[in-house]
Structure formats: structure tokens, C-alpha cells
Amino acid sequence: MKDHTGSSQKEKFAKKIRRDALWEEENEQTIVGITNQRSWIANTIMELYKTTWQVEIFFGDIKQQLHIKSFIETSENAEMIQIWIALITILILKALKAQAKHPWYLSNLVAFIRLNLFMKVDLHKWLDNPFVKKQPPPNKYIQGVLF
């Protein structure tokens, strides 16, 4: 089959490729991949693919949850600082999510932290049970009737 430039697919992709399929127990699904790396076993290729996908998800979370559209400052040093701050922030958020007993979605956790940013709370208690109503402090002194 020739493309619009007149070269065939065989000429464009001279290397032989292979199709690998691997059953994944965790999600009970078959993962299919195509590669030109013929010396590695299918397991290695699929693990590499899964790891790469986790990196994609991680950076997607940074863009989505931290709402980073552009850099505030554009010098190389400033961009690196902003990238590191974003990485540290998302890692802290994911660590808090992993430690919490409440089944947070990352987006909900970020939104709730934004809403409660200036509230004085015990963070770990709040993460475990965010919907407990605060009890008013007990009255230590009850004022008697003056007249």
C-alpha cells in the first residue's frame, strides 16, 4: 500500500514489529501492545508500558488538579522552581490521600483542602472523617441571674 508520498509501508517501517498480549490479573483484562523491540520478553514490554502509563497519569493529575496552564515566570530557573513546586505539591496530596481512611478522590481532596485552607483543624483526623460536625465547646462557666 502506497501513501501520498509514494513510499510503501514496508519502506517506512523496515523493522519487523511484534504484537504482544498479556493477561493482567489486577484489572482482569488483556493488555495488547505493539513493539519493534524483539529481544525483550512480552512481560518486560507490558510492565514498561504500564509504568509509562502511570507517569502519564501522574503528570495529568498535576495539570488537572493544580490548574497549571502556563508558567508565572519564564526564565529557565523560574520554570524549574515552578515544576519542582508542582511535583512536591502533588506528591504531598497523593501521600495524604493514601494515608486517609476516608476514600477520597484526588479531585475532591484538592477541592476540600482549598475550601478549608485557613481553617484550624487536625489534618489527619479531618482526612479520616471530613464530615463530622464540630461540637460546641462545653460551657465551663454558667452565669447566674443577676436580678
Describe the structure.
The chain has helices at residues 9-12, 42-66, 76-99, 106-115, 123-128; strands at 18-24, 29-35. The protein has 147 residues and is mainly alpha-helical. It has five helices and two strands. The protein starts with 8 loop residues before the first helix and ends in a 19-residue tail after the last helix. The longest helix has 25 residues, at 42-66. Helix content is 47%, strand content 10%. The chain has a two-stranded antiparallel sheet. It has two domains: 9-59, no CATH class; 70-131, no CATH class.
How far the N terminus sits from the C terminus, by CA atoms, comes to 103 Å
As for the number of domains, it is 2
Helicity, in percent? 40-55%
Strand count, sense and barrel status of the largest sheet are: 2 strands, antiparallel
Q: Shape from CA axes?
A: elongated
Relative strand content: 5-15%
Low-confidence stretches: none
**Mean pLDDT, nearest integer?**
83
Structural Rg? 26 Å
Strand order of the largest sheet: 1-2
Q: How many DSSP H or I helices?
A: 5
Q: How many beta strands in the DSSP annotation?
A: 2
Could you outline the blueprint of secondary structure elements for this entry?
Elements (H helix, E strand, L loop, with lengths): L8 H4 L5 E7 L4 E7 L6 H25 L9 H24 L6 H10 L7 H6 L19
Antiparallel strand pairs: 1-2
